[in-house]
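quick q for whoever's on today - can somebody do inverse folding on this one?? i tried earlier but teh output was garbage lol. tokens:
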């Protein structure tokens, strides 16, 4: 579990940070008022990160920063001091970043910075650079930002590492490298991995006029000219990772049903079409429709109906969470069982139908029972609409047979 130490002597600022943290951070937080209290916390716990005020009642000269850094804890400074000397001093000490308390938004910025750093933890970053010194410097900075760092000495090696580790989320690539240069690398990588999946920052040394635009046109998200200041490196990496997270959030919104949190029709079609195109094994598609759902709405109102839909989604997730599962209409859901023949799938869905009929949904302090009808079709065709039509016909038959049953299109 990630744990963050916040050291701040102002009661008001602590309250603001507590409130913002409750909205943006899902970690254990400890708040210390003083250097003394910070020492006590550090003796008791391991910390992923620290956010610390520079001046405290019992330590007016950044002693707390020295303390957290001595414990090897990546540290972000929260300060009202903005003079150039303090800034240089902090950066030389090796803090990750500093936030100046000069307006209301500073606290939100600090908390969001912590959230992004925590997201970086466990996230893989690859450095492709033939210079040992550059790799060492960048590794140190990325590790301070909590990345798990890998290294390649040329574009070709970087490409093999990226293929072997599809979970790498950030690539920093120099332009001039032996075997394969940075441009060739970015072009090759972008053939298989989009900007929403892998962030790329291009780098190049002196005399690199015009390279930045070229890197970005080939598919890099950003560019850094060497030599760079640590602070600039930090800001660009953080901004690029923030963009990547935003892409992921937008994608998730586009593919999820807001009410139940299940995937939606669009995602289901995309995934299943791909499966039918690329995988010729045996699969069974099921359409599941809650029986007489209108009666629930009539009896308990739309909000009551919504609550039942959420509980149905949980029940479905517990049974089919590892398969492609989606809410594809009002009270209609779809699942594809990969690698199942029809007989086995029938058994699985009949067990689920029975479980559903026995389940007691909780509504307004009382329990409510319902049933579900299920239509099955094997993925006999590469055309998803054909398979969907077959499963839909089977579902229609299940409804006509007095509901609460499983019917296969091939019976
Ligand atoms: N509460 C709620 N109701 C929804 C939602 N989407 C669709 N519905 C309702 O689901 C009901 C579906 O009704 P019908 O298509 O007649 O089907 P049914 O009552 O389930 O009957 P059978 O399917 O024939 O067993 C309608 O009353 C819709 O208003 C939703 O998101 N929330």
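ok took a stab at it. sequence:
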């Amino acid at each position: 579990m990630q744990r963050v130490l916040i050291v701040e002597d102002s009661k008001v600022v602590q309250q603001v940070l507590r409130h913002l943290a409750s909205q943006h951070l899902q970690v254990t937080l400890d708040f210390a008022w003083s250097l003394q209290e910070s020492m006590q916390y550090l003796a008791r716990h391991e910390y992923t990160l620290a956010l610390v005020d520079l001046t405290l009642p019992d330590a007016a000269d950044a002693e707390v920063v020295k303390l957290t850094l001595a414990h090897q804890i990546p540290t972000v400074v929260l300060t009202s001091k903005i003079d150039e000397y303090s800034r240089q001093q902090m950066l030389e000490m090796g803090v990750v970043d500093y936030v100046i308390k000069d307006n209301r938004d500073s606290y939100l910025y600090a908390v969001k910075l912590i959230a992004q750093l925590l997201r970086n933890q466990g996230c893989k970053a690859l450095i492709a650079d033939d210079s040992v010194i550059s790799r060492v410097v960048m590794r140190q900075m990325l590790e301070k930002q909590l990345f798990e760092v890998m290294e390649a000495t040329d574009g070709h090696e970087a490409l093999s590492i990226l293929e072997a580790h599809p979970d790498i989320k950030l690539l920093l690539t120099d332009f001039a490298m032996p075997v394969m240069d940075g441009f060739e690398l970015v072009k090759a990588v972008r053939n298989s991995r989009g900007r929403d999946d892998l962030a790329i920052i291009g780098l190049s040394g002196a005399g690199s006029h015009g390279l930045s635009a070229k890197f970005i046109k080939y598919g890099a998200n950003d560019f850094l000219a060497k030599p760079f200041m640590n602070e600039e490196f930090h800001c660009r990496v953080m901004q690029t990772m923030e963009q990547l997270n935003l892409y992921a959030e937008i994608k998730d919104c586009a593919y999820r049903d807001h009410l139940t949190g299940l995937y939606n029709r669009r995602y289901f079609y995309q995934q299943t079409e791909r499966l039918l195109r690329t995988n010729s094994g045996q699969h069974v598609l099921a359409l599941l429709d809650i029986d007489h759902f209108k009666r629930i709405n009539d009896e308990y109102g739309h909000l009551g109906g919504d609550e039942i839909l959420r509980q149905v989604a949980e029940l479905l997730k517990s049974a089919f969470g590892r398969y492609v599962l989606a809410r594809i209409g009002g009270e209609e859901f779809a699942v594809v069982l990969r690698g199942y023949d029809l007989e086995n799938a029938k058994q699985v869905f009949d067990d689920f139908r029975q479980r559903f009929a026995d389940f007691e949904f909780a509504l307004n302090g009382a329990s409510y029972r319902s049933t579900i009808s299920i239509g099955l079709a094997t993925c006999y065709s590469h055309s998803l609409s054909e398979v969907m039509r077959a499963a839909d016909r089977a579902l229609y038959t299940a409804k006509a047979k007095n509901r609460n049953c499983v019917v296969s299109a091939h019976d």
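fwiw Residues 265-408 form a domain with the Alpha-Beta Plaits fold (CATH 3.30.70.270). also Residues 259, 289-294, 297, 302, 305-306, 309, 330-331, 399, 403 surround guanosine-5'-triphosphate (CB under 6 Å). so keep that in mind when u check it
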